[in-house]
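Q: What would this chain look like folded?
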Amino acid sequence: RSSVLFDLDDDGDLDIVTNEFNGRPMVLVSDLAERNPDLAFLKVKLVGTKSNRSALGAVVRVAAGDLNLMKVKDGQSGYLSHSDFPLYFGLGSAKQIDRLEVSWPSGIKQVVEGPIDLNKMLTIEERE
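A: My prediction, written as structure tokens:
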């Protein structure tokens, strides 16, 4: 058995693919974005330069109004598989992102001040 979460149809909500031993994959596509078009998200792709290229061990904090979220890029996101590398932040009804902070494994702290656009992939390369 295995499962993986990622945005298969690039509509901002997470979909699931599962697989049973000697079976065909089952694809579960979420229609959350269609049913709730006002929901916001941000995908964060990290590219390490001093740290490892995949940025494993990095911590990302996102502030959007009263909402404060944190994710660790630990490489452990599926069962007997690995989910898509961008970190996914569901932001509910937020209108903008005020601030994003990355704590890289190298010890470098990087801040992106807002407003940051919603509903897209943001790529951040490690810089001093």
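The mean pLDDT is 88.
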